[in-house]
Amino acid sequence: MATSFAARRGFSTTRTQLGSPYHYAEGPRTNIPFNPMTKRFFWRYWAFMVTGFGSPFAIAVWQTYKTK
């Protein structure tokens, strides 16, 4: 029965509707939530990485030296 059910399905797709508010432009760098082509992207990227990676270590050092 499973093989006949799969054979009956019509695996087809419809053309994308470009007027839809849920369709976004396609191509390189269009599927990421930031623009890597700006002048300050390099500095913003590394500031984000240093902050995100360094925060746990800074918090651990602060907790170690905190008086009880």
TrEMBL record:
Keywords: Membrane, Mitochondrion, Mitochondrion inner membrane, Transit peptide, Transmembrane, Transmembrane helix. The chain crosses the membrane at residues 43-62. GO terms for biological process: mitochondrial electron transport, cytochrome c to oxygen. Pathway: Energy metabolism; oxidative phosphorylation. InterPro entries: COX7C/Cox8 (IPR004202), COX7C/Cox8_sf (IPR036636). It is a single-pass membrane protein. It holds the Pfam family COX7C. The keyword Transmembrane helix applies. Belongs to the cytochrome c oxidase VIIc family. This is Cytochrome c oxidase subunit 8, mitochondrial. It comes from Penicillium arizonense.
